[in-house]
Amino acid sequence: MSEIKLIKKENSNCSKKLLIIGVFHGDEPQGEYFINSYLNNNPKAGKNSIFYIPKLNNSNTRKNNNGVDLNRNFPTKNWVLGENNNYFGGYKPNSEEETKFLVNLIKENDFDAIITIHSPYKTINFDGPAENLAEKISNILGYPTSSDIGYATPGSFGTYCGKERCIPTITIEIDEEENMETLNSKFSKLFNYLENEY
Question: What single-letter DSSP state applies at residue 25?
């Protein structure tokens, strides 16, 4: 596995600490573009400390290079050994280096909120006590909010962080049909909000 790039924009006097993750699934690359574009144009830290991971998964497919869907590999109470298909969560929970990296990062930091960027469902899905943040993100991106993605997600990151650890956790599902530059402008506003107003 290639080393995961973690970019910290820290403020020693910050009131909140957040984690933002792009490319959980290798075939959903947009988050890396939005994050890198924002960081290149906004290098200084804001009021809050933000940890950015532009690209978690270095494969070009949904699953990682070991054939595991990272969003089914977290050590949750509902993790199951499932079929070896596109949603395969590994032969045991927390087996993947990417998963271990995030589990350790979350243990070492008291995050006030966590946001991941996915596609293509055009919704703001939230887990844990995140409804208010989801509504704010909805206002910026113009997407509806939902506490239920509509299907079972055993071993998911949202369950691990939001439901089991009560960290406000947001999964942004972007609209793949929307113009990338229009979306990039919206995400720039979102990241600025998270850094300076949330």
Answer: S
